[in-house]
Amino acid sequence: MSESGKRRPVMRSTERVDIGRPRQLARLLITVSERHGIDVEHDPLYGRARAWLRPRREAWPMAEELFATAPARVIDKQDKHFEREWHALLSGSTTRLPLA
């Protein structure tokens, strides 16, 4: 939400990279992330993990990028004009981190 309380438009892109058991995928994500010096959030109880390549900022506009383990029913999907908006956001003055 913005300071005025209005909802901001959110665009998303989801791509399934691999499929497997939760704990197995979490171990793989942790191993690869550590090899590249990327912090990982891990929930050993449910076997889930998240590795943030581009953490969420506090102010708009913002871009976040991460790998996450999720249920197998996740499907690839992308909002219309996502690529155009993503590249515009990253190439503008609001860019905070280089692309990984």
Q: What Rg, in angstroms, do the CA atoms define?
A: 15 Å
DSSP summary, beta strand count = 5
Instruction: Please tally the helical runs, counting DSSP H or I stretches of 4 or more residues.
Output: 2
> Unreliable stretches, pLDDT < 50, 5 or more residues?
93-100
Strand content: 15-25%
For the termini, the CA-CA separation is: 27 Å
Largest sheet entry: 3 strands, antiparallel
- Supply the helix-strand structural class: alpha+beta
Helix content: 10-25%
Shape: globular
The helix-strand sequence is EHEEEEH
Average per-residue pLDDT, rounded, comes to 78
Strand order of the largest sheet: 2-3-4
Summarize the structure.
The protein starts with 12 loop residues before the first strand and ends in a 9-residue tail after the last helix.
Describe the fold and architecture.
This protein has 100 residues and is α+β, with helices and mostly antiparallel strands. The chain has helices at residues 22-35, 82-91; strands at residues 13-14, 40-43, 48-54, 65-68, 77-78. The protein has a 3-stranded antiparallel beta sheet, covered by helices on one side. Strand 2 and strand 3 (48-54) form a beta hairpin. 6% of the residues are buried. Residues 93-100 have low confidence and may be disordered.
